[in-house]
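Annotated sample (chain length 137).
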Amino acid sequence: MFTLDHLGIVVASLAQAVPAFCKLLGVPEDAVEYHEVPSEQVRIAMLKGNVTVELLEPTDPAGALARFLQKRGPGIHHVSFASPPPLEAKLAELKAAGFRLLDDQPRVGAEGRVFFVHPASAGGVLTEFVEQPAGEQ
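Output written by the structure step:
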């Protein structure tokens, strides 16, 4: 069984995208959660519902997310699934099954530990697994 955690959408500007997505999804702007992950060169706005929409704004024009935006334009960047702890178990399971991973171990994301599966191993979709906090399983 799997649970969709969030959809990551790259945007050029949170200042422009947040009001538009709030209107689109019926989310009050004061309910949006903001995070910055300097190690990933990204600012994030999270619109939470049954599934979270994670708007991603690059902070470094030379970073991977900025290159993605320049090459493909704004749009869906990744799909994220929740995984019960420990996240290392899911990572090891996928590695043993032959999936190409972008991470050798979990890294810090906006709201916890995550790892990514290369799109070449997942039907062309960048796939993230995020550790579901204990008690939310």
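Annotation: The longest strand covers residues 75-83.
Annotation: The chain is about 25% helix and 35% strand.
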